[in-house]
Amino acid sequence: MPENFFGIDLGTTTTLISKANLGQNNKNYYSNILYIPQKNASGEFIERRNKLESFFYYSNNGPIVGLEAFERGPIEKIENCLSNVKRKIGKDVVPWEFDGKIFTPSDVSALYIDYLIKYSILNHGKIDGLTVTVPASFNIKQKEHTIKAIEKALNMNSIVLGEDIKNIILSEPISALLGYLSKQIEEDRDDIALNKNPLVLVYDIGGGTLDLTIVEVKTEKNIVDSIRDVDFKIKKVNRFTDIAGSDFDEKIARYLLERFIDNYKELNDVELSILDKKRIRAKLINLATDFKENANNAFIRGKSKYLTNLELDINNKTYGLKIEIEKEEFAEILDDFINNHESPSNVFKPIEILLEKTDINKEDINYVLMVGGMSEMQLIQEKMKRDFGEDKVVIPVNETQNIVALGASIYSALRILDEKFISEPPSDAYYLKLRNGFKKVLGTKNLSKGITNKFKTASRASKLLIQLYAGEDTNNDEQIDENIISTFMPLRRDYIDLGREYEQGTEVSFICRYEKGERDRVPQYEIIINNQTVKVQLME
């Protein structure tokens, strides 16, 4: 009987892995975070470490990831370091080159997964089921490139899964909800009243992304004793939002730099190379991350002030700084993220935008489940409770950073043992770029049938340029709002050889659709000219 079910939370700043098991009563599933043995900068193995830094460093001996990369890279060769790669996956970015070797965001992500497989998963036996989480708002191309990373990591370890690899992707908010409810059932709690079929807003704010999903939780049982009896109907998913913990760190790092300069005026005149600036920036970000977490913990414990001593090395000189900060000043530094409603960085505004695009009112939300590392911040928790009411806000105690990974392995077990699949709606519509703007060619409904659009060639030509974009769906196909266009991401740019020359004004029919069962892939298209289907031949 299959028994090794794993889940990976492939995070922007940290990556975690869990393993699920069937409970003693053979009803509910429970899961645990696994340790990931890693080397530190000194080359010593730290066995009991439950997270992998999503950090890449190309050393003299080749690529390394995790804690060793995080500690060695910025000191030895900052220009060979990569972080926050998840924000770039599936986007048109220039690959990185180190020592003549090319790395794409997908390649770097594959190294993170490969490390987990080699040093954690294989210690527990073969893989019977695997789930990897992605933001709910990832478009098809971003999901596709994540799948490529998974496939590459599996191939590096000669592992063949016994299921379609497209099935192993699960959105982070749904995984978090799955993990939380399974733990709630296991511990016989009723934080979220399952027998009332509640409407839950999952608010997932981590190190690199903010993900929102509204879910209707359904069950036919009055007393739920297994996650197997719970179903999920996804009502709405927000657009991709890459404002999260690392942005808070950037803001705090600027504050700390200003404090250093205020205390040491000579820093204004220090000349630095580009690499020196990168090293100092990396050090400031690390200081800011620790400052943010330690200050937050102090305020949670009821302290009115946070006191710390910081050191910053610049041009072989160490600058010390003593900082005492009150909670009000700490809140003021982060005001653009939390209370300034006009700020584009506000992490609560996406909730308002999401609700505006549905027929759901704030009062209709029964619970808000807060997950992700940044949901531990007291300022964010307090604001959420003010907005929705304290009785509606649910925060996993000591599990905010782990709950996505915990749910992922449970989904692996549900999929393999119970053949239970969670259907997630596509997050994108598709648009064709024209000379005078954009035209929607495939919406989030009627996906298999597709839409036939007719255009006329702008000039005499034997070639056709097809530029396909993914973005938020629009209700007005004739006039696409600028806010909708701002969500667009390029998916495909194809030059088509038409086989012969056509006159200006020739009618072209463009049909975009998914093949059956292929909704997790970039949609296909068909071109018809003068009632004849053109064989799509891509040009170099």
SSE map:
Layout: E1 5-10, E2 14-22, E3 29-33, E4 38-39, E5 45-46, E6 52-53, E7 55-59, E8 62-65, H1 67-76, E9 81-83, E10 96-98, E11 101-103, H2 105-119, E12 129-134, H3 140-156, E13 169-171, H4 172-186, E14 199-205, E15 210-218, E16 231-237, H5 245-263, H6 274-300, E17 305-314, E18 317-326, H7 327-333, H8 335-338, H9 349-356, E19 367-371, H10 378-388, E20 393-394, H11 403-417, E21 429-434, E22 437-442, E23 451-456, E24 461-471, H12 482-485, E25 489-502, E26 507-513, E27 524-529, E28 532-534
Parallel strand pairs: 1-12, 12-13, 14-19, 19-20
Antiparallel strand pairs: 1-2, 2-3, 2-6, 4-5, 7-8, 7-9, 10-11, 14-15, 15-16, 17-18, 21-22, 21-24, 23-26, 24-25, 26-27, 27-28
Helix pairs in contact: 2-3, 4-11, 5-6
